[in-house]
Target: GmrSD restriction endonucleases C-terminal domain-containing protein
Amino acid sequence: MRRVPFLATALALALAVTTLATAPAHAFTPPNIPSLSTATAELNALTVDVERNAGTYDRALFPHWITISGTCNTRETVLKRDGSGVVTNSGCAATAGQWYSPYDGATWTAASDVDIDHMVPLAEAWRSGAHAWTTSRRQAFANDLGNPQLWAVTDNVNQAKGDDDPALWKPPLTSFWCTYAKAYIDVKYEWSLTVDSAEKSALSSMLGRC
Model:
């Protein structure tokens, strides 16, 4: 039997340990992120228009988080969906687990450090057409689990984003810009929201990193 040299074995083991130490602990993402070609076609299909009705926005017009199943609301559902080893109590609150934030590459073990971000912010949606929706449609948008709209991310990164579109804010982790743009475009497309010219230009530039 051919024996593997000790040095080669040691190097392979060291490489494996290093890979495990540096790789994201968990990297689940929301569903239905489109391909580059699909996202490009969707971006080209979006209506370009100025934003409107900013002064009449009220977060309460987008009811969330709603009950999804049993005692679990939308936030708790996303924490379970996108976390690793998530443990919940009888009320569905996460008491343990691990969450990888793709916006900044950080990993968290306390649910309190994690926000559920609306990829297309609620105020941005309002300015881009949601002001004309019914409350029921706005509720569906704010709790959308079927499209890449809800992301588990570092809380202060989400707070830094606020209600900015990609012309004003981008994730700190530049390697995520491609995925961010594809997801953002898809949500706008699926919900028939408009983009302004600066926003479209920023999204096109981010797709260029794919």
In short: Confidence is low (pLDDT under 50) at residues 1-23. The CA atoms of residues 24 and 209 lie 21 Å apart.
